[in-house]
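Handoff note, outgoing to incoming analyst
You'll be picking up this chain. Sequence as last confirmed:
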Amino acid sequence: MQAISNVLAIDIPTTRLDAILENSRRLEGQRLATAVPKSCYAINVWRGLAGFFASVAVWGGGIYLISIAPHWSLWIPLSLVSGLGGWGLHCIAHECGHASFSKSRLFNSIIGHISLVPMLYPFNGWKHIHDMHHANTNSLEKDTDWRPVTRGIFRKLSIVDKAIYFGTRSIFFWLGTAHYQFKSGFRTNIFPKRSVRMEVIRSFAFIAIVVAAAVPMVYIHAGWMGLFKYIALPWMGMHAWFSATTLMHHTSEEIPFLKSGDWNVNASKLLMTTDYKYPKWLHFLTHNITIHTAHHVAPKVPFYRLFDAQKSIKQAYPGMLREKPFAWKDLYVAVTRCHLYDYDSGFYEPFAGSAKPRG
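Most recent structure output, in case you need it:
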């Protein structure tokens, strides 16, 4: 391992495309996951269930607080509280999708389906398109998450598609994953294998049954306003967390999307992610989802062992990981500047014009 570290410890700015491509070439042929100790793969189902029930409590507690709020102005902040619980449940489903929650495929599927009920997201629809993201992270041609288009392509989009792209990359970024949900969770024609399509259909049927049972029940007890307060608002709160978190994982003025000739799988795992350090309580409630490089390197590491995995990867590949304290400024930059793909530089540029020079 020390030999690998000596080869890869290079001191060059990672904001320049040529430096990133040089690091990328140095990573080719490396087996990144060997940097992660076997102990990091050990699954503790009870620890995972503790996280699951903690998120259920936050989601349900937020809805309860909405129900007793003395004024409607409190509904939005409380929907973000409930949304945090729902986002935590999505992170548990994320574990299930990668088979790091349990060794049982059936139990992973059961918990995964239940965890995505608040978001009304078919588990297998999400799981299979998320696998595509892992296989093609920050590939300009193939990534499924927050992939940008060039200015020329943007101009050729239909009015509807242009409005959706513009909105979800700027003022309505917090609904970006809602659009992603409708594109992935309820469509089968994007998956070539029949077995996968059938799994997606079964997950859709499960969500349809839940909606058919829950919506009339809520309407009978609380009317249209109840559907808005207890289902729609928390759902939007979940997507606000979902969108902000996933946008910041791989979107930055300092992180390129790579064309097919430059992209390689090791670079996508190690160089294309920003790991944000949250307060401990937020790491707990989001199940360490922002310890994201270690997750891309070793997706089967459970969330409660990601810090240990990350530490080992940093030791093996010094200077390769991007770690930062969470800052609202980074989200602001992503929303106001990271819009379109500049084919010449490989980086983002804003809708209004060219991005600042990168030296």
